[in-house]
Design a protein that fits this description.
The chain is an all-alpha fold and 224 residues long. It has 11 helices and no strands. The protein has a single domain, classed as Hypothetical protein, domain 2 (Endonuclease III, domain 1). Helix content is 55%, strand content 0%. The N and C termini lie far apart (54 Å).
Length: 224
């Protein structure tokens, strides 16, 4: 995609959604970290159903440890892979207390050293909690970047590195949310809503969808 088109692409996404935000419900860096860990291979909506009750009683590493793994599992059992996630949340909570005074670190290496936290999770925390211009490539961003021709890549890391190069500096802070929300609601995997897409003329996707013609009425008055 040409540089001028990339600028136009983000200008349009920004105009459509001036202040994009994470759809995960949280209110501290720690609750965000826990929510993002829970969201792996799960939907934000599913996580948001489980976390309010959890965060009312365990919104700090110390309170999470006091809750314990078994009771934590009871709160998140509706979320996929809840056994492994519970184990990781208890372990990362202990590590936050042991190494960081109970606070979520602002450094990527320290975040990625926490159990259950990979590059994508670290990028989300750095961006959402600390305002760093990081881009966390999930399945939606991976699809949009490749499908549109914005930043093609065979792996999430390759796409992230490509996006770092092409996204205008002024747009990097919110690029993650613009792309993920666009992929979630417009540039969907199975049936993208191309007619409603604000960047369809810039997109390289060859399988663009079109408006479906109204179904013809069968029978009724005058039918033969």
């Amino acid at each position: 995609m040409k540089k001028a088109d990339v600028v136009t692409l983000f200008d349009r996404l920004a105009a459509a959604l001036p202040e994009p935000k994470s759809e995960l419900e949280y209110y501290t860096p720690y609750t965000l970290l826990v929510a993002v860990v829970l969201s792996a291979q799960a939907t934000d909506a599913g996580v948001n159903k489980a976390t309010p009750a959890l965060f009312r009683i365990a919104d700090t590493p110390a309170k999470m440890l006091a809750l314990g793994e078994a009771r934590l599992k009871a709160h998140i059992k509706t979320i996929g892979l809840f056994n492994a996630k519970a184990k990781n949340i208890i372990a990362l909570s202990q590590m936050l207390i042991d190494r960081h005074g109970g606070e979520v670190p602002r450094e990527r290496a320290a975040l990625e050293a926490l159990p259950g936290v990979g590059r994508k999770t670290a990028n989300v925390v750095l961006n959402v909690a600390f305002g760093e211009p990081t881009i966390a490539v999930d399945t939606h961003i991976f699809r949009v970047a490749n499908r549109t021709g914005l930043a093609p890549g065979k792996t999430p890391l390759a796409v992230e590195q490509a996006l770092e190069k092409v996204v205008p500096a002024a747009r990097k802070l919110h690029a993650h949310h613009w792309l993920i929300l666009h992929g979630r609601y417009v540039c969907r995997a199975r049936k993208p809503d191309c007619p409603a897409c604000v960047i369809r003329d810039l997109c390289a996707f060859k399988g663009k969808t079109t408006l479906e013609a109204p179904a013809k009425k069968v029978g009724g008055r005058g039918a033969k």
